[in-house]
Amino acid sequence: MKTSLDIIVRPTEIDVNGHVNNAKYLEYLEWGREEWYEAGDLPYDVLKRLGVQTVTVNININYRKECGQGERLTIVTEPHAVGRTSYVLNQRIFNEQGELCADAAVTSVAMDVDTRKSRLVPEELRKFFPKSV
Questions:
Q1: Pfam families recorded for this chain (predicted)?
Q2: Is residue 114 annotated as a catalytic residue, yes or no?
Q3: How many angstroms separate the Cα of 32 from the Cα of each of 38, 55, 63, 103?
Q4: What is the value of pTM for the model shown?
């Protein structure tokens, strides 16, 4: 499952250099991941009922092109790989011209709501990832 989320860069997201602050890209990626979970009918409350929360443990991001105030951006999120207790989502941010502005691999761990320890990725989430060979 692949999702796309369109946003507009707001004035509060611009830093002293006149472009989007690097930390805001992480926020954009988070919005994209939330969109992905929603599209898979796995919003926070559903995951919690399954006894699981997702915890981001690593983000490897490449900043490719600066973005400015008022620009329309698209955040694309798609599943990459799933392991026993963790999974990786690939994310890309494009501008209106289709230019790649940033790309990231985001690793998350399935955490048991009660024990606060890692647990198996539930099938309801696992089903969205390509099958390993």
A1: 4HBT_2
A2: no
A3: 10, 15, 16, 12
A4: 0.94
